[in-house]
Write a structure and sequence with these properties.
With 330 residues, the protein is of the alpha+beta class. The protein is built from eleven helices and eight strands. The strands form two sheets. A four-stranded antiparallel β-sheet has the order 1-2-3-4, with helices on one face. A four-stranded antiparallel β-sheet has the order 5-6-7-8, sandwiched between helices. The longest helix is centred in the middle third of the chain and has 33 residues.
Amino acid sequence: MDTGTHIVMGFALGGLATLDPVVANDPVTQYAVLAGVVAGSQAPDIDTILKLRNNAVYIRNHRGATHSIPAVLLWPLLIAGGVYLLFPESNLLHLWLWTQLAVFLHVFVDIFNAYGTQALRPFSSKWVALGVINTFDPFIFFIHVAGLILWGIGFNPGYTFIVIYLILIGYYILRFQMQGAVKSAVKRLIPDAEEIIIAPTIRFNQWRIAVKSDTHFYVARGYRRSVTILDKYKRVPVPESKLFEAAKQNDNLAAFLHFSPVYRWEVAEYDDCYEVKFIDLRYRNNGHYPFVAVVQLDLDHNVIGSYTGWIFSEQKLRKKLQLGVRPPQL
């Protein structure tokens, strides 16, 4: 989920914690638990600072180690210990328990996004991504905000957020049913589909779809129970050549291939260099595929420029590569 949703979920857990008699009857513990759950709801996303290095490092590591099983166990100990130093009269056990719940819920709700997490590490490096909830879901965010407002005007926070979370359980079930209906429609439309990737969007009834068959990639849009194919590409294996082997050694392309399960590739040859481009097919937006990896190599297959990330114009891509805009290939 996005940072804002994790923040409101943290405060919501602080309200829910008032149902705990130990927390409810001790104002110091209440403040400590609120600090612990808000911090715990944010802690796994500390790896966002990796963006300061470069996109390749961020893509390879975001929602990885910081969302792993050891991290889920370690974060509450660190946070509860730190908060306890500020509130030494609070109940440490209950502070830790609620902080543990906050960290667990952060990782748990992230697996419902299309991005997913490596929540099973160290036992498996597989990305767990159920793809039923958008990274920012307006309903989830604003129902939490509504609960916080009700708390602010005097409603019992514990009972308020119990009701809200019961509603959210129903909402998640509904989203799974909607995704299932879209998947069934894809299977009817593309009977030879080998792999179907369905991702939610910020629009409640709209879904992004990428499909692999034995011979083609399909890019489609789902709306309610209907599916429309937008693009179709023949599946062409990545060549086993010196050019592509050299490109794959580049950190940006390696990060892209680590993250992207469905993509196509292009190669262009210019007078003084080659350009290898990989395009993720999951994020089509207004006819454009913004998530790419590009590697430029000289005629001896030495990398002279590369980039991976979100790009919405050719000019910005060239700026990222720190090379001039090349003329279109004839």
